[in-house]
From TrEMBL:
Protein name, as recorded: Cytochrome ubiquinol oxidase subunit I
Residue intervals passing through the bilayer: 20-46, 58-76, 96-120, 132-150, 191-212, 224-242, 339-363, 375-397, 427-447
Lineage, highest ranks first: Bacteria, Bacillati, Bacillota, Bacilli, Lactobacillales
Keyword GTP-binding recorded: no
Record-linked InterPro entries: Cyt-d_ubiquinol_oxidase_su_1 (IPR002585)
Length: 479
């Protein structure tokens, strides 16, 4: 059977990609929503305007939904380390065990505790106190991100380790070096600003759908203003953080950078930037391209001169360095087309969202009638889905770009897979996960739509009820 001829390695990679992409739909959204909701509640505390309280409660409900689905998908994600990547887990366990344990025990715990307190105590604390809980929830989610990214950053740029001579595994020599890994402190701002941009775009887009449905105009217009302002600032911030990321990969993973720019040959003193291009990945050459002179030097070094190394010479360097250990058949070229187009989707996406934010802010000033601009509202509505694509494109660059390494320079992808897992087992778990994710996605969309259709005036959530409501009562659990 043709399907059974697909190997365990390909199926394990497919499964990890599927679970990660799906999980990462919810992660940036819930991190960003925690920030946007905290901002809304703070505006309520400062301006004492009830509409902001309603906003925090309405958007908070969508935030809770995404948080719940995010947790479930995250748990499934972790199963795979033992099931499909046991050689990797043995090799890396000493390093990634500590950050992941701290994440679960401290950061995730903090986030979950404060989200619960925030949800059930709207009428039990003064607004000034209550708002602290959502900021603490947000802080918990950011700390959580730091620890997960610390583990991922080691895979991209290993620091603070030594190879145990008898086991051949990595052992931690400096926890400080793992936490201060420069890769981590470049990824973190980019991921967080991307997350806030994601949430702001969704708030703006859902508000646009609300206005198209012609209900709660005042509420949705105000929500849209908040969404657009956050889109503007986070859109600028994600670009600045992305620029830092670019500088980092030029140094640490030049093959990844060369692939994002579709560069096979080394450039001259000034590097031209390929805007779009087609590639022959077998012959390792560019087939056709449209280029802007000197623009790649500007992107890479912020000046008009500076050469960039191409994939062909980098490939030779890798062979010279690793052939003794991995043999001369090893392929060090990363998937060029995936990286090249992902970069353009991600970076072009930020420009698009920034433009929408600027036009949107201009259209929603005092006395504006944005509710009548139906064409523009549709564009904003459709834009709701785009940051999820941009986030996935970002991770495609990060993860496909470290090929053939699982842990950069230390373990290859092929060496990390479980030795005993069978093709049949892989197919089974792939299909089960796919069905579960489809179900969870459908539940998320169904309930988000339900919340939207009910609108802000019908918040029947436990946390909107009176001061004497018991969070553990049957009603609170909807029984
Ligand atoms: C001009 C704008 C942007 C630039 C220059 C940029 C640059 C980069 C670079 C170079 C990477 C790869 C880093 C690595 O492999 O270590 C990356 C990854 C990523 N990007 Fe972007 N990016 C931009 C916009 C965006 C936007 C708008 C989003 C999301 C809404 C986004 C989300 C991500 C994510 C989630 C990753 C993977 C995590 C990471 O490595 O940081 N990026 N970006």
């Amino acid at each position: 059977m043709a399907l059974m001829s697909i190997g365990v390695l390909s199926l394990a990679r497919w499964q990890f990609a599927m679970t990660t992409v799906f999980h990462f739909f919810f992660v940036p959204f819930s991190i960003g929503m925690a920030f946007v909701v905290a901002l809304m509640e703070t505006m309520y505390v400062v301006k004492k305007n009830e509409v902001y309280k309603k906003m925090a409660q309405f958007w908070g409900k969508i935030f809770l939904l995404s948080f719940a689905v995010g947790v479930v998908t995250g748990i499934i994600q972790e199963f795979q380390f033992g099931m499909n990547w046991s050689n990797y887990s043995r090799f890396m366990g000493d390093i990634f065990g500590a950050p992941l344990a701290i994440e679960a025990l401290l950061a995730f715990f903090m986030e979950s505790v404060f989200i619960g307190i925030w949800m059930f105590t709207w009428n039990r604390f003064k607004p000034k106190t209550h708002v602290i809980f959502i900021w603490l929830t947000m802080l918990g989610s950011m700390l959580s991100a730091i620890w997960i990214l610390a583990a991922n950053s080691f895979m991209q740029h290993p620091t603070g380790f030594a190879i145990n001579a008898s086991t051949g595994r990595v052992k931690m020599t400096s926890f400080g070096a793992i936490v201060s890994n420069p890769q981590l402190w470049n990824v973190f701002p980019h991921v967080i600003t991307g997350a806030i941009l994601t949430a702001a775009t969704v708030v703006t887009g859902i508000a646009a759908f609300g206005l198209l449905r012609k209900h709660s105009n005042h509420f949705f217009k105000k929500s849209m203003r908040v969404g657009l302002w956050v889109m503007l600032f986070s859109g600028i911030a994600v670009i600045i953080a992305g620029d830092f990321q670019t500088q980092r990969i030029i140094q640490d993973q030049p093959m990844k950078f060369a692939a994002t720019e579709g560069l096979y040959k080394d450039t001259g003193k000034s590097a031209d930037w390929t805007v779009i291009g087609t590639f022959d990945t077998d012959k390792h050459e560019v087939k056709s391209s449209i280029e802007i002179p000197k623009a790649l030097s500007i992107l890479a070094y912020h000046k008009t001169t500076g050469s960039v190394q191409g994939m062909n010479s980098l490939n030779k360097e890798f062979h010279a360095k690793y052939d003794k250990k991995y043999g001369s058949d090893m392929n060090y070229y990363v998937p060029v087309k995936t990286l090249f187009w992902s970069f353009r989707v991600m970076a072009g996406g930020s420009a698009l969202l920034l433009l929408l934010a600027i036009i949107g802010l201009a259209m929603t000033g005092k006395n504006s009638k944005i509710e009548n601009r139906r064409g523009f509202l549709w564009i904003l509505g459709i834009a709701t889905y785009t940051p999820f694509v941009f986030n996935s494109a970002g991770w495609f660059i990060t993860e496909f770009g470290r090929y053939p390494w699982l842990v950069y320079g230390l373990q290859t992808i092929a060496d990390g897979v479980s030795p005993t897992t069978t093709v049949g087992q892989m197919w089974f778990t792939n299909i089960v996960y796919f069905l579960m994710f489809s179900l969870m996605g459908a539940i998320m969309v169904f309930y988000s739509r339900k919340i939207m259709i009910k609108g802000p005036d019908n918040l029947d959530m436990a946390y909107g009820k009176s001061a004497d409501s018991d969070p553990f009562s049957k009603e609170a659990f909807g029984a």
